[in-house]
Description:
The protein is α/β, with parallel strands linked by helices. The chain has 2 domains: 2-250, no CATH class; 258-400, no CATH class. It has helices at residues 34-45, 58-64, 75-80, 84-104, 110-121, 133-143, 146-161, 168-172, 179-183, 192-212, 229-238, 243-250, 258-281, 283-307, 312-325, 333-344, 349-353, 355-358, 362-367, 369-400; strands spanning 2-6, 14-19, 22-29, 51-54, 126-128, 218-225.
Amino acid sequence: MADDNTASATRGPRETVVVGDREYVLLGTAHVSAESAREVRAEIDSGDYQRVAIELCAPRHQTLTGDDQLADLDLFRVLREGKAGMVAASLAIGAYQQRLADQLGIEPGAEMRAAITASQSHELPLDLIDREIGVTLKRVYRQIPWWQRLSMLGGLVGSLLSREKITAEDIEQLKDGDILESTFKEFAAQSSDLHAALIDERDRYMAASLLATDAPAGRTLVVVGAGHLKGLANHLRQGFDNPATVRGELSTVPRGARWLKWIPWAVVAVVLVGFAIGFWRSPALGGQLVLEWVIINGALSALGAAAALAHPLTVVTAFVAAPLTSLNPTVGAGMVTAAAELWLRKPRVGDFAMLRGNVKSVRGWFRNRVSRTLLIFLFSTLGSAAATYIAGFRIVGQLFG
């Protein structure tokens, strides 16, 4: 096995790795750089390659090629399967990348689109080697502690609220990083677990994808964000005993700690026991505890729905449903409020078609019926969750304080 590392002032960073009878030319790009797109196109047009591989997964490839599955998004299914948060996070990341691209007047993922179209015109096989973004976000979520999950959410929100202008020079500096990592730049450097899931694991996954490909001998152009260049090259040089097994392991989502699943049930048990003790001591005290539970749960969940600009009847639904759903952890208040919103204001075809464009701005999230429903689900759920613990502590305080 041999390797070569070359770069020049007029070319993006690159490395060449030879594995047996295959040669991989790793080209580091910036995901929102017009110069990177031109370089990718020129490389493929040179006729020096028999295959092209790109840092995309199937869903992201579909988005770039116009076959966007958002048009067929089943919101009820997304909510029922607990994927609302992941869909919202994916939209926020895409919006951040689009905002960067808009400031320079180019399309996001221009270099990947250039690789797709150029490989098609030269009739070259195209390999999608990156891990699905949904799996990456889930692994990030599972592998970092709860306080870093809050920071992750803050990074997504901050990427939407920020209005800082990005210069062309700043964009080119993304060649030293990764688009996902840059979204969470405020804290990614301080979290080894986050960095591992966002960068290191994907380096291994992409290397395993390349080595697992049943491709004949020849030269492959591998187009990746430059933040992956060194890690990917190192893993290719080291190799794997079984690349397919490595991909499988990195595609699984770790299970959450079992004891965490029992916390909501424990809180419900405490609340119900508190009600029983209250009524045993005095019907007036028991009634007061139940009333406070209803008001606190209903008000905070309704406040969350209202903050997401829900329909007035959806806000009322949140107030009525939250006190009940909080006593049954298998049904969340957000599921009820989102269902009510979908019934009252069903998304139109145009909402799905304009979704990616709308979520580039905060106002757009609230204007589009699809994204607004996701916000209603999340906000009313957070309001109900906070209310459950607040009311629970009040019940314990009044009984034993």
